[in-house]
Amino acid sequence: MSGTSSIVTSVLDQLSASGHKKVVFCNDPDTGLKAIIAIHDTTLGPALGGTRMFNYSSEAEALEDVLRLSKAMTYKSAITGLNLGGGKAVIIGDSRKHKTEALMRSYGRFIKNLNGEFITAEDMGTTTRDMEYIRMETEHVTGVPESLGGAGNPALYTAKGVFLGIKASVKEVFGTDMLAGKSVVVQGIGNVGEHLVDLLRQENVEVYISDINEERLHEVARKYKAKPIDADKIFTIGADIYSPCALGATVNDKTIKNMKFSIIAGSANNQLADENVHGQLLLEKGILYAPDYLINAGGIINCYSELTGFGKKRTMQLTEHIYDATREVFKLSKSEKIPTNLAAARIAEKRISDIKKIKSSY
Ligand SMILES: NC(=O)c1ccc[n+]([C@@H]2O[C@H](COP(=O)([O-])OP(=O)(O)OC[C@H]3O[C@@H](n4cnc5c(N)ncnc54)[C@H](O)[C@@H]3O)[C@@H](O)[C@H]2O)c1
Questions:
Q1: Whose C-alpha lies nearest to ligand 1, atom 41?
Q2: Mean pLDDT in runs of 10 for the chain (362 residues)?
Q3: Rounded distance, CA 18 to CA 1, Å?
Q4: The overall pTM is greater than 0.80
Q5: Pocket test for ligand 1, best of 217, 247, 250, 255 (most atoms within 8 A of CB)
Q6: ipTM of the complex
Q7: DSSP-derived 3-state class of residue 256
Q8: Which helix H or strand E contains 342, and what residues bound it?
Q9: Ligand 1 contact, 209 CB (< 6 A)
Q10: CA-to-CA distance for 327 and 290, rounded, in angstroms?
């Protein structure tokens, strides 16, 4: 008994520490579904976040991940100016082995029971096909295929946001946002990376690319006249900008030490290995960091458009706002002498607290 109560205490303590509103544990023995839906904050609107399917080694690890990711969604939507709160869900299991129609639809019914407080989308380990299954049970899902009225692949908007984040950073460091003649290393040339290489090459940027997929690396290099480089050259090359578009945590003690870049601006989530340490280290080293969750918000803007019925034109207009939002972050960082990741968090928190106040009056 004491063991049970200490588990309950520790889960609720975790929620209090991270400011979470609600966490739903979903268990369906018939389909094997084991999922956790975390709703961090709904001040600005329903909590929107993707559903990740991953073979977590423990339930504690899954809970830690979903709490971290859902909180980040609150900040992302707030700073992007969307009327959305933050949430995220994880399904525990191997997406290649354990995923079935029944499991996804069972999961969809758990979302349905939240009556719109949580809206989901694709993430690692889930596909548009899975969103279709969820849609069979609930309307609270985005990222369904265009043929079903969805907004389609968000990568183009994500790449555009990152491109504008790069422009805003170049303006801050070099005094003009003209990109011609600058050099960028794009790490990861997948869905987002390739569109970004295209946009950069259109502005005559010297682009270096790196990817673990050799075939794709050479194909993209040929197509856009970019220069392929080995992974071990990324942090020693003397380029102006590093654009991480593959994995998180690539900005860490080891990499920062060797970095010669002036700017870090890419699409990968959680680029700073430790938010509390590496933002400050970059500031001290004079490397300008464009906060990842702001400049990669094109994806969530696309989901928001799908929900609100905005078309592609409005999606692009909202994505273009990322330039000004990034400039605002740099302004606050400079005036307060704080790391840019902290400045972004302050702007997001202020918007939430301002809107909370107006919602308290009839
Ligand atoms: N797709 C979106 O709209 C979107 C939105 C927000 C954030 N993101 C983030 O941006 C990043 C890229 O997304 P994507 O949709 O292009 O993914 P993707 O899977 O299409 O592409 C990732 C690419 O990175 C490469 N890669 C993997 N490990 C690597 C390594 N160690 N070094 C170099 N390359 C490596 C892969 O081979 C692949 O080509 C991810 O971190 C994703 O979470 C994407």
A1: 268
A2: 56 92 97 98 97 95 94 96 98 96 98 98 92 96 87 91 98 97 97 97 98 96 98 93 95 95 96 96 98 96 92 94 98 98 98 93 77
A3: 26
A4: yes
A5: 247
A6: 0.99
A7: helix
A8: helix 340-359
A9: no
A10: 9
